[in-house]
Please model this.
Amino acid sequence: MNVFSFDNTFEGLLTLIFESYRQGRFPDEILSGEGSQCILFGSTIIVETDDRKAERVWKGIISHSSEENAHRIYRVFLADIRDTPLLLAKFICFTIDSVKNEETNFAEPLVLEVHKLHQKVCKEAHRVQMFVRFQKTVEASYYASFAPMYDVLPLCIPHFRDRYADQSWIIYDLKRNYGFLYDLKNVSRVVFDELRVNTQNGQLHSALLAEDEILFQKLWKQYYRSICIQERKNDKVHRQLLPKRFWKYLPEKGIL
Amino acid sequence: MISESSLEKLKILAGAAKYDVSCASSGTQRSNTKGGIGNASAWGICHSFTEDGRCVSLLKIMLSNYCIYDCAYCINRKSNEIPRTSFTPDEIAKLTIEFYRRNYIEGLFLSSGVLVNPDHTMERMVSVAKLLRTEHRYNGYIHLKAIPGASPQLIADAGRWADRLSVNIEIPTENNLKLLAPDKDFKSVLEPMKIISANILESKAERKIHRNAPLFSPAGQSTQLIIGATDDTDHTILKLSSALYSRRDLKRVYYSGYIPVNSYDTRLPALIAPPLRREHRLYQADWLLRFYGFGSQEIVNAENPNLDLELDPKVSWALRNPHLFPIDINKADPAMLLRIPGIGTRSVPLILLARQHQRLNSTHLKKLGVVMKRARYFITCNELRSQNIQELKPELVRQLLLEKKAIGNDGAVQLKLFHPMMPALR
Ligand code: SF4
Model:
């Protein structure tokens, strides 16, 4: 059994593929991150991330399929769940070993599985764009916390940067404890050691809020309530469209 | 000024606008300008969902719910004794910007009761859009309602600032419109539509020559029809929609099941519940018109003037045309694939791609999102050999399809609101 371990970065995964081909050994199991689990398996191959090797695999994927397919693989990687590295490793090898471009062969289980996971990741990214709520701070910048199911913030940043180009903002992933900050010029990755945020609802500490922030949250909630047509109330559909796990971050659903 | 007292106004004016169903904020791609705020993305984004299951993407609000008219189906008609109020253009602009900055909304959808006269009202509405675009440097989405009877000049102004304009026809036939809305006639609603579509065409033509020629309502125009307030048939309704799509180039026709807001008015039918199922079937039929290449006559006609409430209109059509089936999944052209019950606009592209690699069987189809329990009667594919509509006869297939379908809660029927994601990395 071939067991590989890597540093859980996308470049790391691509390096892993490179090493597989070089050594002629393909992963049956992939361990990510901290080494402690590795002890269980005698002969774990530890992959050292190497950007040049990663780059070659990236180009290989593109030449055997398409640029879109390579980007799809990256987005699926962000699913950030235990089995994705192995799934992707198999998918990448399948892509590289195929004579034709197989990326649209949906009758092939591996292709379909990647396709489905890709849709889920994209849907979650879309939901971030839908459900992120900014709070205006005393410094007139805008803060939002969120906890997406997959690690999709990187996919959403271009959208927010374009739309909110004239306000500085932070979008923070509470689950993974990192976020992005836009300072009217650049977007950078940030980690806060001490976050003055109520993790239950993502609200900033009240001392940090702009004076009229609560008023606008109230107005929004009032608006939300007023547009519901009671005669057409439909709980089931409502919950399908607006899953409960998001409610705590939405002022319109809060207790305010 | 926006303050605590705005809460009450918001309650009244949002409540007054809620029966207008149009939720789309899609159709324009407007990128942000330097130093400005906002963009309109081609797909439009829902930012929340109401408890009745509708997408909230716009701040949909009335500038004022005072009205000099007396339309029977409208909660804001002048003879109703209800709390009335108005926002100033400044206040609406401010609310829009503040909501937008917090990612609550995609933009503004502004309508109004008729204050003083149509021109006066239209002028105030235009000034909101202008404020947003100039003073607030706002590039998000704006939808303005054109007030029936407003002057061509004001409508032209509105189209300069807005992404979309709409004039609601509400009642699908002239006689019924006159009966229920004595202050309006077909001319007062159709005339602005004509002006809008002429302006849109003109602006499109100009922009082909000068790339920077001004935009005019780039997301087109839409309208709304009220369903079930009159005895007009689905045939009448869909014929009108189809004409609007082809001749006035409308982007959307919305159907709104009549909610008895003025039950005292005897010109209106006494309804126990709004006709939601019929509304849903009309939306399905509308999709067939717009995305599936159907003509309105194929869906409803003189012999079948109303949609079958129990089956979706594509299935009804297929049952009336058994001679066209079964269809070979591995050979049929895309247009025909689209006409098979259980196959939609999402699975067709997947089928087309996948069948280049191998011949598809029923297991493949299921995985590609085909609803086999419906499609099976209408197709042949590799290896599958189940009884199809030719052998079973339409009436039996109809029974089989009905049994399979648990008749759910009326409101549980919903249109798919999600569009495929755009690849975010590109
Ligand atoms: S003009 Fe508009 S707001 Fe006034 S009563 Fe008629 S439908 Fe209602």
Notes: The first helix of chain B runs from residue 6 to 17. The CA atoms of residues 318 and 324 of chain B lie 8 Å apart. Chain B touches chain A through 70 residues (CB under 8 Å).
